[in-house]
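Hi R.,

Here's the chain you asked about this morning:
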Amino acid sequence: MTEYIIFAGIFAFILGACIGSFLNVCIYRIPENRSIISPGSSCPNCHNSIPFYLNIPILSYVYLKGRCNSCRHPISIRYPFIEALTGAFAVLLFLKFGLTPAMFFWFVFISVLITISFIDFDYQIIPDRISIPGMFIFSSAFCFLPETTIMQSFLGILAGGGILYAVAILYYLLRKQEGMGGGDIKLLAMIGAATGIKGVLFTLFAGSLLGSLTGILAMLYMRISDTKFKIPFGPFLSAGTILYIFFGKHLIQWYIGTINQ
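And here is the predicted structure, written out as tokens:
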């Protein structure tokens, strides 16, 4: 049994890292409205094609010492980081759910969140071509998660989109300026499709807490006093959702237990 878990875990990491390599392509090309299928991978600096034997996740970066094989221009460490991150989530999901439909559903979902998060970091946008189809795709959660129903996904979409939309309207009425991007609204609606209302509420609370703490620390580190300092909210919504997937039920039960004491 132990050997099976080790072998399956290694396989999950390799497969996840390969998917992570594809996510790098999506993160780089989708904001530029380029095809994610063709042409093949190339160096961002010299634009020479990367042969398949030098495009092995993580290992190629180590072998090439972080530089392009053609022009020797440095390659961002973010590429192997995303590959390793995706591989790590594949292993963690396997350990939590085993080889079940739930594991594959959540792996696809987290892969989409990783893509959205890094695009939001770079451009402070969340592309509609990811979030809107995602609402429909992940509303199929009832096919993969026994505890989820179609109605829960539908209500999750309404709650996710509705709560942030209401916040955006209220902020605009009070401050006369936009404080919440439409991309965040659609992202939370997509999250609601997969997690339902409970997931939306948990994600919103956890994401807001993580975002606030990060913003305060960033302002202190950079010595910024402007209260209008902006950081992308999408990555923190994604982080909150991932916390819900792995620990949500236990944290909710713990919180209910504390307030009932």
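One quick note: The chain has a mean pLDDT of 90.

Cheers,
M.
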